[in-house]
């Protein structure tokens, strides 16, 4: 049976930064999740929190869960850094969903995000039609296509790969929230060596880093190398308050430049 573009259903996969940017750039082909999926075929790629469909891809396979060795050996597919693997294993993000034929939309398409949707969004026909029209597949929304396949032309260009962002995920404990710190033991690779100091102000590091909390303030500080935390705890406490931090939440640290760190709260799975 032949369907019109407006009749073709499409599911949208919600993906956080920085992972969606790596996927759209072509440098990440495995989206890591905690559970397998039976979904196959063309899907929309949604940037979490934006209300926008940013691209499309074919979900071609769901592989078996990986152990530490498997994650280490396939870093070129999932884009997870070696310093993040322990956190990924702890969180259970070990099931690869394989994507192919990724296409970035020239203009992201808005949609209305349904309450409670975390992983998948069922996109309405009018959004599916806008994606198809933008692709150049058809200028008339009533033109026909084969079911659920050729919404985006295979010849559409893919942006050149972008270098991955150095990042690390930290799981928050009640003690960390109560005392205003983020444990940096496994994230020290994000910080310059000269920004790691001793246990008190007399042994502060010679160098510093600028830390931008999202949400929250931006502070300049060094790392207390004895406690493995940021020396300036005021910014961390303000961040926890603004983000409504709870035990078990995850924090993403990203090195944006050699001396610039961004810290954000992650509330959902990868």
Automatic annotation (TrEMBL):
InterPro entries: ASCH_domain, PUA-like_sf. Pfam families: ASCH. Residues 15-64 form the ASCH domain. This is ASCH domain-containing protein. It comes from Azospirillum humicireducens. The lineage of its organism: Bacteria, Pseudomonadati, Pseudomonadota, Alphaproteobacteria, Rhodospirillales.
